[in-house]
Amino acid sequence: MTTHSAPPSEAPAAKPPLRILLTALHLAGLGVIGGVILTVLGGLLGTGIGLLFAAGIGVVLLVGLVYALFGVGWFEVARVSALYRTPTAPLQLRRRERPGFGGWLRSLGRQAIDGRMWRAIAHFAIAAIFGFVVIRLFWSLVWSVFISFAALTDAETVMGPFGGMGIPVAWSPLVGIVGIAASAVGIVGLALLHRTLALAIVVRNREAELTERVRTTTAQRAGAVRAADVERTRIERDLHDGVQPRLVSVGMTLGLAQQKIDSDPDAARELIAEAHTSTKAAITELRQLARGIHASVLDDRGLDAALSALAGRSHIPVHLDVRMDSSTGSSRRPSREAEAAVYFAIAESLTNAAKHSRASETRVVVRVRDDDTLWARVEDNGMGGAQVQPGGGLDGIANRVLAAGGTFRLDSPLGGPTSLEVNVPCAS
Q: Are residues 381 and 263 part of one domain?
């Protein structure tokens, strides 16, 4: 008999009493701290708006509010993921896509409207309300247990759990049993409702996740096919326009030399020397063409050394700043695909800067980020106006980066400068 287990990314189907108890304890804890946190967030919002034009104090408070909201959202995602053992990607701050203050401001704006963060905050608020109710139900449960034994005392009436009119002692056992049942049912019901809402709001839907994964894989495959087609076209063009005519010229020169070798040996020797020079030039072009297809130094010595060799061959000065260690101290080398995508993106950018932009210098910055991605930025001081043309070099870069699961951004206003950024997962 074959058994099928649930996918690891889904919550267990069973709801054991221990899981319900843990959920109830979570809600009780949120009932205690949730109100305080939501009050602080509301206070930051109100004060920030009220002091918006008071020497920038309100702006500082609103910026702090965005980060505080992110912290609450991150906590809620982590809490739900740990409670229900659902492997959920942690909430992350939006990455800065541009350098400087403007880039930070853009990332802050995108963080402020991040839908996933707001869903987590909404669920935190709902859980805090549930928690307040659960605390009251816990107290009602404890009171119901004690009231069940009130008939053993000499009292004539007993006070209700939240004050109000007294309850005759003769009715206390029945009231206590009903109270125990109602409180327990309320706690269990809220715990189950919390689980349902958590899986619907915080934990990403499995079907939506698989759909997104298929979409991403399809886009990467299309990018790989397109990149291969652009690369093939480039190789054919380089062979047809460069090496092939030169080899044809070598063949014709050797033919003339063969005809003159008996009648005019000196002229034949000059033709052979000319053919020899053309042959060496053709070999150099073939080497450059092969280097454009595959950089052997990239495999042998890594991206840093390959970029140093690339900068050394550039026709314009290149300021190279490569740091392959993340800020956490990790020095794990990125995958070959990630290094190749970044290398050829930089190579094409330097070629464009030398041929088309009239730049006098370029700057190349490469970093391994803490989110395990390989990021590179190439900027030149040329005249700008670069565009991604179908079948062109930048089109090949974009598709190669997409095939590696990365992102590509080109900023080239008329008048310059031109900057190109790529960001590729290290394990692509």
A: no
Residue 133's pLDDT is 92
* pLDDT the model gives residue 202: 83
List own/partner pairs for 50-55 with CB under 8 A and 24 or more apart.
Answer: none
Rounded to two decimals, the pTM is 0.53
3-state secondary structure of 305: helix
Interior/surface letters 378-387, b for 16+ CB within 10 angstroms, e for the rest = bbbbbbbebe
Write the pLDDT tens digit of every residue in 314-327.
778 888 888 877 55
First to last CA, the chain: 38
Same domain, residue pair 266 and 415: no
> How many Å apart are CA 45 and CA 58, to the nearest integer?
9
Task: Give strand pairing partners of 366.
Answer: 322, 376
* Rounded Cα gap, residues 116 and 73, in angstroms: 8
Q: Which two tokens stand for residue 72?
A: 């609450």
Give CA separation, 391 vs 2, 111, 355, in Å: 51, 35, 17
Backbone angles phi, psi at 9, to 5 degrees: -85, 0
Over residues 136-187, the pLDDT tens digits come to: 898 888 878 877 776 666 655 666 565 555 666 666 677 778 888 888 899 8
Q: State how beta strands 166-168 and 318-323 pair.
A: unpaired
Q: State the virtual CA torsion across 77, 82, 83, 84 in degrees, nearest 10.
A: 90
Q: Using CA atoms, how far apart are residues 387 and 410, in angstroms rounded to an integer?
A: 8
Does residue 322 share a domain with residue 281?
no
Please give the residue that has the higher pLDDT: either 285 or 146.
146
Amino acid identity at 397: I
Range list of H helices, 202-243: 206-238
| Alpha carbon 122 to its chain's center | 23
Checking if the pLDDT of 230 tops 70, the result is no
Residues 98 and 235 in one domain: no
- Asked if residue 73 and residue 46 are part of one domain, the reply reads yes
Please name the residues in contact with 267: beta carbons below 8 A apart, sequence gap of 6 or more: 257, 260
Cα separation, 419 vs 410, whole angstroms? 6
Backbone angles phi, psi at 151, to 5 degrees: -65, -20
Tokens standing for residue 131: 């928690």
Domain that holds residue 280: 228-293
